[in-house]
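Comment thread on ticket #2218

A.B. wrote:
> Attaching the input chain for the structure job we discussed in standup.
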Amino acid sequence: MASSGIQLFGFLLAVVGLAAIVTATCMVEWTTFESSEEQAEIYGGLWETCRASSSRMSCKARDSFLELPWGIQVTRAVLISSICLSSLAVLVSIWGMKCTRFMEDREETKRFMALSGGVMFMISGLLALVVTSWYVGLLIEAYKNAHHLDRYEFGNAAFVSWVGSILSLVGGAFLNCRRCFGTRSSLSPAMIRQSAAGGAEYV
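C.D. wrote:
> Ran it. Output below, let me know if you need it in another format.
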């Protein structure tokens, strides 16, 4: 029961991590830019940009893919790949966890699927962690090159993505925990029953 609990805990952590990465990908607060000339605060997301002034806030979608900065294109692609991989890991892990009733008679396949789901969660979290850190590095460089009166920095979406990445990594590690699988007996259930019956004759 304890091993099933560890698997379930890891799975829930990884699912929360997936939800956080999806949220971060959709958020507009990847960058915040305060222009001293326009007296407005500009938020830059992966999919749209928003301009907030004292009176109102307006957003515009990033329609043209070719006109996007290459940093945003790479970040988009990697985060979407991470989300797709985590989504596949959810399905694989559900089939492989000990607390589910799928493939109960195929222990080796069930174990392999649980391990595969954990590995996919870890790879997904690593992808999101690396690309988020890399994109933040680009923003830091842009801040260094910006006008000294302008404020250019990364926003809350990066923190949400970092948290989601770490949760996916930790959740995948729990799914790969060896304690979750126990020690596999070399005897089949039929052989165990036959051995027990044979031993009873000598009692």
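A.B. wrote:
> Thanks. Noting for the ticket: The chain has five helices and five strands.
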